[in-house]
Amino acid sequence: MPSSVFAASCFADKKINQRPNCKSAWHANDAGMRFERRSEYAAAMFALGLWGGLQAELRAAEATHAKVSPVVIAVRYLDFRDPKTGKAISDAESVNTMVNEVSEVWAQCQVGFRLEAYDAIDPRQYGTGFSPVSFAELDHLREATENKRYLTMIGTGAWNRSGNLGHSGSNCYSSFPRDAADGIVCEAKVAKNPILHAHEAGHWLNLKHTNDPASDGVADTTAQNSEHDLMNHFVAPGNRLLTPGQCQRAREAITEWRQNTSIR
Ligand SMILES: [Zn+2]
Hints:
The chain is an alpha/beta fold. It has one domain (6-261): 3-Layer(aba) Sandwich (Collagenase (Catalytic Domain)). Helix content is 34%, strand content 14%. It is built from seven helices and seven strands; from the N terminus they run E-H-H-E-H-E-H-E-E-E-H-H-E-H. The chain has helices at residues 26-47, 51-64, 92-106, 135-144, 194-204, 223-226, 244-257; strands at residues 6-7, 71-80, 111-121, 151-156, 172-174, 184-187, 234-235. Strands 3-2-4-6-5 form a five-stranded mixed β-sheet, with helices on one face. A two-stranded antiparallel sheet has the order 1-7. Strand 2 (71-80), helix 3 (92-106) and strand 3 form a beta-alpha-beta unit. The two termini are 35 Å apart. The protein binds zinc ion (ZN). Zinc ion binds at residues 8, 13, 199, 203, 209. Zinc ion (ZN) binds at residues 8, 13, 199, 203, 209.
């Protein structure tokens, strides 16, 4: 049963100076309120036995895309090592497990993800601290570690909320295909969270949030299916569905921008 909800807010998804859809920090409070309601909603779904219906919906979506040949994205994970203790936040095995779970979520689009490289790094080598404090620092980190052969995921120490990262409750950011700072960066407490990384991979593959289905550039997202959609602004464990239109848009993004990361 879903026990937690993460707010991967829209202003978390793009560079701070490229955030046209992101109004303000008030979303953080809003997220807290929605958290309550969504938890209650999930509990009610279980009580009504509707969870099985969602699973059936997922299977139907997978069947729809079964005819498309699969593509696998190479993932590189950079794991921050705490300069004080020398210890990394995660380890290769648990990161591999997480990436495999991301892959399971994306199987409905015939898109897979595979961990091809794992490095525990000293953040100081890339000109940043263990606990990043600003959007600029996260962007610099991704630019300094860029490698277009991979989807780069970075796990940092807990974010220092005294800077502009403190304006939201978000703890993961992703780039869109045209952004200069490429990749996904998450702070320690969600560094191995598969559903959140699957959501951020959606942005990396050019998917927008479905909360306003009219403006996400996908014809078949609706207010109804957004409730279970992976690209819902609020990422809960039960938000795993992608529509055929979203799958198509993501696969087109691979062809157009992410071909170098494709293993097959
Ligand atoms: Zn998002």
